[in-house]
Design a protein that fits this description.
Radius of gyration: 22 Å
Structural class: mainly beta
Distance between the termini: 29 Å
Shape: globular
Number of helices: 4
Number of strands: 29
Length: 501
Amino acid sequence: CWGDELEITVRNNLRFNGTTIHWHGIRQLHNVEMDGVNGITQCPIAPGQDFTYKFNVTQYGSSWYHSHYSLQYADGLVGPMTIYGPSSDNYTFAEEPILMTDWNHRSAFEDWSYSIQPGNGRPLMTNILLNGQGTGARYLLRLINTSVDTTFIFAIDGHNLTVIGSDFVSLKTPYNTSSVLIGIGQRYHVILTADPIEPTKDDNYWIRTIPAKGCGSDNFVSDAKLLNNTGIIRYTENNIDPSSAQDPNIPTACSDEPYESLAPMVEWTVEDPSNVEQTHTYEVGLQGIQGPPYHPSYDRTLWSIDNMPLWLKFGEPTILNLNTPNGSWPTHLDVTTHNPQVGEWIYLVITAPSSSLAPIKRPDRFFVPVAHPIHLHGHDFAILNQSSTPYPGFENVVLNKNNPPRRDVALLPQNGYLVIAFRADNPGTWLLHCHIAWHASSGLGMQILENKDALANRLGKDKKKRPMLVNTCEAWNDWVSDIRNHYNPRKPNAFQDDSGI
C-alpha cells in the first residue's frame, strides 16, 4: 500500500550472470542505493550472493520490476508491482496486472551477440505475449508494457476504455477512448465497462495488443505481425473463438496518448530552470566508435545521447566513486546539479533529428527516424513540450508550465523533440535511458549526478548501506576475476559486450 516500507532480498542462483533488480518508477527518495542499476548504484549481485532492497513506496498505482543487468530482463526477469492507493474514478472490481511484451524463442544475449557482428542487423522478434482476462461490470485494468522493442496499442473489440491514470499519476479528467498506446516501460490504469457497444452472436471479444507503426519497432518476423489478438473477453461459458473484428479506426501511429488528456489530478506548476537549457540539449543518434572500453573493439556504430555511448564498469559503480575529480568523470556523465538549492528545477531538451536534417550540435553522428521511450530514474518529470516536428531552438519552443503531464517514461517522437523538467530534490546517481533494450545495450543512456556532495556526505555517515555496497562489489569482483565463471572462458575480455544496462 501507499506509504509502506518494502524489504526484498534477491538471491542470485544464476551460473554465468550477475544481476540487479530495478523498481521501475519508484522514486527512491534519498535512497538511490536501492535503485538497482549495476555500475551506477551498486555492483551486480554475484552468483551465490544476495542483496536486500529496502525502500518506502511514496507513490501509488501500477509498475513493474526488472533486471537492469545487460539484457537480462528481455529473457523474462520481470514482474508486476501494484501499490494500492486512491483512484480518480470508480470501478467494481480490479483485475490482476496485464503485462504485454514482445518475445523471442532465443536468448536476448544470443540475439545481441549476433547483432553486433559486422553486417548483421537488429534482432527480429517472434511473438507477442499477454496475461489478461476479464468479464463483468466495471473493471480496473492495470496495463504495463514490459517489452524489449515494441510500443503497443491495447484495445478490446466492441468496447471503449476509460483512462484514469498514467504511470504513477491519477488524471484530472478521465477520458474515453477505443484504444490506448503504451510505450515501453509505461503503465496505464483503464476502466473497462462490461457492456459491448455492438454485441456479437457468440458474446466473445478479442483483446488486442497491436504493434504501433512508425516507432522503428515494427521488427517482427512476418507471421508475428498478424498475431495481435492475444486474449479473449467471454460473457458466456463457451469455447468459441470470437467473431469480433478490430476497429478499423483505431489510431496506430507512434505517439504517446494525447498530451492534453494527461493533466494530473494533483496539480503542479513548474518554475524557471536553474540550468542553461541550451547546454543541456541532447541529440539522439548513431555514432561510430572504436577501441576500449567498448567491446568488441572493432569499428562499431552505437546509439548515443550524450558525448559518447554509455558504457558502465560493473565492478566500479559511480555511487562508490563520488570523490573522483570533476574533470576525470567519463564523458557520458554530463548533467550535474552540484549542491542545488532546495526545489531547483532542471530542464532537459532531447531531440531525435531526421537524417534529412543538418544536425544542430553533433556532426559526428548520423540520425535515423526512430522514436525512443525515455525513462528517468529517481524522479517523475514534467513534460513541457513534446513534438513530432523538428526542434526549432529553445527560444522558439512554447513551454507548458501550468499542470503539465507528469510521468517517468515519455516518448521522444521520431524527427521531433521532448522537453522535460524535474525538481532536483533527490541527491543521487540517476540513469536516464531509452527503454528499447537493444538501444540501451548499445549505449543510449547517460547518468545524472544530482547533488553528489550531499549524497557522499549521507553515505559516509551510513554505517549499514555503504558497507553493504562495498561487500557486494568485493563479492562480484572476486567472482568475475575467475575466468572459469565466464560463459566463454576462452575469451575473458568478452565478458561485457554491451553498455551494462
